Amino acid sequence: MEYRFLNAKGINIFYRTCGGKDKPVMVLFHGFPSASHMFRDLMPMLADRFYLIAPDYPGFGQSESPDRSVFAYTFDHLAEVMDAFLDALGVRRFFMYVFDYGAPIGFRIAVKHPERVLGIVSQNGNVYEEGLGKKWEARAEYWRNPTVDKREQYKSAFAKETVIGQYTFGTEPGSVSPDGYSLDLYYASTIPDYAEKQSDLIFDYQNNVKLYPVFQQYLREYQPKLLAIWGKDDPSFIWAGAEAFRKDVPDAKIVPVNSGHFALENRCAEIADNMKGFF
Q1: What three-state secondary structure class fits 227?
Q2: What single DSSP character describes residue 90?
Q3: SS3 209
Q4: Topology classification of domain 2-278
Q5: pLDDT confidence of 196, banded at 50, 70, 90?
Q6: CA-wise closest residue to 3 among 15, 20, 21, 18
Q7: Residue 52: phi, psi to the nearest 5?
Q8: What is the pTM of this model?
Q9: Cα separations in angstroms, 28 against 90, 148, 156, 173
Q10: Which of 52, 67, 127, 149 is 20 to 30 A from 201 (CA-CA)?
Q11: Backbone angles phi and psi of 43, in degrees to 5
């Protein structure tokens, strides 16, 4: 494994890589409230098949976290920076692994450059309204009627008990190491103005839902090779979101795993084996 920084659109982006550069590229887009460390176990398992690249988005992990006065924390903007990051690396053809926030980021890039995407792994990376769990009903009300009080309320998304719950809900007791969520909590406590930056993204998530039809049209038109492998007990992006891919990509492989949202934390080897068997 190697750990590097690269400047993309004036922002220092941290990324980790492993595997031989002569192999097909696999770009891994992380979720919330995590960073590229969520792929720390998966990447070595795939290094014999892919050259793997996992960046941290601006405001996440080890990447630069610009002030909100000079950087808009929106998914359009994060995708723009990630697109520039791949260009700076000279990546022109790649597979992509999308999880949680990584789905609207990765799919924006796929829509812009459909010819570059060799295949997609969606691990609890939702692009269908069917996949939105009940918590999104309340968030939709917040998007319709935003208030300061509601914005404050949703800062509970990065409270200690919420983050730990995201990792452990739907998993067998004792099957999830504290390493991942402990590092997420460290970043939440040390990244400047973290709560406000993340609150901007929670509010902007509504624009991802509005783009779902665009992402679905991309899938119908280009029929990428697609593996939807899903922690089936995820309360945020429910199992129906995995099954929905078949509407647009009939040949998609849909696999449930016995886990919740952060399925890599206790089903990493199973996910790696499915990826190797499919691509």
Answers
A1: strand
A2: T
A3: helix
A4: Rossmann fold (3.40.50)
A5: very high
A6: 15
A7: -100, 135
A8: 0.97
A9: 16, 34, 27, 27
A10: 52
A11: -60, -45
Residue 132 contacts residue 224 (beta carbons within 8 Å): no
Q: Which of 30, 37, 77, 261 is catalytic?
A: 261
- 124: three-class secondary structure by DSSP: coil
CB 74 within 8 A of CB 3: no
- Distance in angstroms (rounded) separating the CA atoms of residues 56 and 63: 6
In degrees, rounded to 5, the angle at the alpha carbon of residue 275 between the alpha carbons of residues 243 and 22 is 140
Tell me how far apart the alpha carbons of residues 179 and 201 are, in angstroms, rounded to a whole number: 25
Domain layout of the chain by residue ranges: 2-278
Please answer whether residues 267 and 170 qualify as being in contact, where contact means their C-beta atoms are separated by less than 8 angstroms. Answer: no
∠ CA 185-186-189, nearest 5°, is 85
Task: Reply yes or no on whether 261 is catalytic.
Answer: yes
* 124, two tokens: 């609890």
Strand order in the sheet with 226-231: 2-8, 11-18, 51-55, 25-29, 94-98, 117-122, 226-231, 253-257
Placement of tokens 């991942």 in the chain = 180
Model pLDDT for residues 35-89, shown as the tens digit of each residue: 999 999 999 999 999 999 999 999 999 999 999 999 999 999 999 999 999 999 9
Q: Residue 192 and residue 173: Cα distance in Å, rounded?
A: 34
